[in-house]
Amino acid sequence: MDVLPGIDPRAPLLDVTNLHVEFRTQYGVAKAVNGANFRLAPGETLAILGESGCGKSVTAQAIMGILDTPPGYVTQGEIRYRGVDLLKLTEEKRRKVRANRIAMIFQDALSSLNPVYTVGFQLGELFRKHRGMSRADAKKRSIDLLEQVKIPAARTRVDDYPHQFSGGMRQRVMIAMALALDPEVLIADEPTTALDVTVQAQIMGLLADLQQQRNMGLILITHDMGVVADVADRISVMYAGKVVEEAGIYDIYARPAHPYTKALLESIPRLDMKGQQLSVIQGLPPLLTDVPKGCAFNPRCRYARDACRQDPAPPAYAVAPNRTARCHFFREVIGE
Ligand SMILES: Nc1ncnc2c1ncn2[C@@H]1O[C@H](COP(=O)(O)OP(=O)(O)OP(=O)(O)O)[C@@H](O)[C@H]1O
Ligand SMILES: [Mg+2]
């Protein structure tokens, strides 16, 4: 593997600070990511949570360096991998990071696999291209990987085409592709939404196992608070392009500090509330070309007061060590 100059093994695995991404469209400038901050350690799972359109995938694309440009641009911030700011690298170096150090699984496995090549060929390509392996060795490694992601009869299935696999099995193939070059960071963007509930749980379990075996940092993007409870160590809750709350999983569930987090939690169906009205958050997230003044959540917030409707937006208050919330009234929210 090529050595990336400037790598500091003692620096945080991934450290995103003040990330801003905007899309310049004919309807105006959409501020999709508006000062996002988070950090990831080896072996840690960070869940990024939020409603549709809040900037989760765009954040992932910016980290991977696969943003749709134009119309999307990173306008501010740093994305440091082991101390190296990825945003300052040449495209060629960036591509190496993408292949070897930071990998991503997309929501839609079918459209990410090439229908005209066998799964084994697509996996083997990675080993041949990036590791200079022979065809035979690459095939051996591919079978190995398919076994690691628990595909039954890997030895014969390696010669099958993507359409011959079920949805869940295809997602396992995608996981195998993402892990092929032993990345230190894996970003999984809604890896299970296209699957039914039982298969979802199996895939999440597999991801968690593989992450532990490999001591990878995992960023799990989802809009489902129920999914993250079992696997995440920390959660970043995003709203309108900002991380509005970041905390350890236990704190978030026990005592949310941001009204938006609290509302998300209240919207999870619970068995002991059977028959009762499910609480949904009133209203819709704002258009990113037209974010409300002050706190972007204020029109939907039951705690909102004058201060919340005025600029500047609430800063990331330190609620406790390793815990922030962008709410002027976090003490009141957490205390309830
Ligand atoms: N290619 C694009 N062109 C223009 N605007 C875009 C583009 N991609 C994303 N955006 C803008 O960025 C915003 C955030 O999109 P993003 O895909 O990150 O949402 P998300 O949080 O991943 O939502 P979901 O849960 O639906 O996947 C969108 O609301 C949209 O305004
Ligand atoms: Mg998305």
TrEMBL record:
Family classification: Belongs to the ABC transporter superfamily.
What UniProt keywords are attached to this protein's entry?
ATP-binding, Cell membrane, Membrane, Nucleotide-binding, Transport
- InterPro entries in the cross-refs: AAA+_ATPase (IPR003593), ABC_Ni/Peptide_Import (IPR050388), ABC_transporter-like_ATP-bd (IPR003439), ABC_transporter-like_CS (IPR017871), Oligopep_ABC_C (IPR013563), P-loop_NTPase (IPR027417)
- Organism expressing this protein natively: Actinoplanes awajinensis subsp. mycoplanecinus
Instruction: Quote the Gene3D superfamilies the UniProt record gives.
Output: P-loop containing nucleotide triphosphate hydrolases
Q: Which PANTHER family match?
A: DIPEPTIDE TRANSPORT ATP-BINDING PROTEIN DPPD (PTHR43297:SF2), OLIGOPEPTIDE TRANSPORT ATP-BINDING PROTEIN APPD (PTHR43297)
- Mention one GO biological process in which this protein takes part, according to its record: peptide transport
The protein's superkingdom reads Bacteria
Keyword set includes Nucleus: no
Q: Which GO molecular-function terms appear in the entry?
A: ATP binding; ATP hydrolysis activity
Question: Where does it live in the cell?
Answer: Cell membrane
Q: How does it sit in the membrane?
A: Peripheral membrane protein
Kindly list the GO CC terms recorded for this protein: plasma membrane
Q: What Pfam families does its record include? A: ABC_tran, oligo_HPY
- Using the UniProt record, give the first listed, main subcellular location: membrane
Question: Would you tell me the protein name for this molecule?
Answer: Methionine ABC transporter ATP-binding protein
| Residues in ABC transporter domain copies | 14-265
